[in-house]
Amino acid sequence: MSDHDQQEFQKQNHFQWNSPFRGGGGAADLSPAVQTAQKILDQALERGASDIHLEPEKKQMQIRCRVDGVLQPLCQVPKNLQEPLISRIKILSGMDIGEKRLPQDGRFQGQWRGHQVDVRVSSLPTLFGENLVLRLLDQEAVQLDLAQLGFSAENLEKLHGCLRRPHGLFLVTGPTGSGKSTTLYGILASLDREQQNIITVEDPVEYQLEGIRQVAVQPKIGLTFARCLRSILRQDPDCIMVGEIRDGETAAMSIHAALTGHRVFSTLHTNTAVGAVTRILDMGVEPYLAAAALEGVVGQQLVRRLCSCCKKAYTVTEQDWEWQYLRLTEPRILYRAQGCPRCGHTGYAGRIPLQEILVLTEPLRRSILQEAGNEELEKLARQEGFRSLWEDGREKVLSGETSGEELLRVLG
User: What gap in Å lies between CA 271 and CA 92, rounded to an integer?
Assistant: First the structure.
């Protein structure tokens, strides 16, 4: 390999800062803090991490990264390098390096192997110094094709049925880090952007979609979700995406938009699809409005996918815990994680979603009007063909996509 080729290879495999604070290539750029920050980002991106945690401890700073939803140790930083490293990240993020007593948020961008990577930074004062968490958003890595997002054929058909409805509120629910935003962006990408006016309000805008007007809320100046929604309704929209329904005012505005002939998409932090109905009511929305506006809910969580190179087959019999957990009636061949160099010896490579789709039918709307509880709503939904997250996960365990241990870890 020539010197020029080696330089190009190193350039592609190093995070390239897109920041006015990155320096001009002088001696300052060779400081230990700069080199350490570069090394941490390179190693985390190489592993496919979604987050980097810089955690101050008494004698050193612990660096961990979240890969496929699980935190893994990355490296340790000497205590004397802790403050310079934190300052380096804070300067890049546009944060105040003199303020160490209050939490701060910032962001910066860079290039990784030709992809644009957005880095969101959050600081938190702790006993031994500021704790930083970096959220890595690779614009090119996100998959926005609904057919490739892991929906079963049955669930995908239900989803498309909801999307064909001309108006109403459609929700994606799940805990933090369950892929709600990815599913929501996949839904937006599937819509006709040429003949429809699609506007989003987000906090922040994570992925840029061509042909869609995207607005980032700024609470510090009063630009909230609810205020944006009021203005968006005067922009002649066909579809509206609200990044998250966090309060009663935003919920009421979203319901109002859905009832006035618009399609509204949003997310909620609930663990199940059925739980989204009661959460909306708890926010102060009248049952008759929720019943009229809500059209469908996707509940979602993520599990790790077994590494195809090293997953190990075994037979489950009545003596094994999986027999009862998976409700088996005959011996089955399943797969468990083993570990190899390709998957970093974890036994897993990537993640797949577990999904459940609640389609609002007339019997369900009548139950919402009567303020039925979660158990009653789920029982009625099952009569209409509803399949839970666990049932979707069971199918993915039986097909060898994930393991029983992973399903138990995520769903309990």
Answer: 36
Q: What tokens appear for 411 in the block?
A: 């769903």
Residue 385 CA to residue 193 CA, distance in Å, equals 32
Question: Beta 198-202 vs 168-173: how paired, if at all?
Answer: unpaired
180-221 per-position pLDDT tens digit: 888 998 998 888 888 899 999 988 888 888 889 999 988 889
Note the pLDDT of residue 176: 85
Closest CA to 134 of 96, 85, 190: 85
Record the tokens describing residue 24, joined without a space. 């001009």
Cα angle 180, 186, 188 (rounded to 5 degrees) comes to 105
- CA 292, distance to chain mean position in Å, is 29
Under 8 Å between Cβ of 260 and 238: no
Q: In what order do the strands lie in the sheet with 129-138?
A: 16-18, 104-112, 115-126, 129-138, 51-56, 60-67, 70-78
What's the pLDDT tens digit per position in 331-361?
999 999 999 998 888 999 989 999 999 999 9
Distance of CA 157 to the CA centre of its chain: 23
What length does the chain have? 412
Contact in structure between 110 and 12 (CB atoms under 8 Å): no
Question: Rounded to the nearest 5°, which phi and psi values hold at 317?
Answer: -120, -175
CA distance 4 to 306: 39
* Dihedral class, residue 290 (left if φ above 0, else alpha if ψ from -120 to 50, else beta): alpha
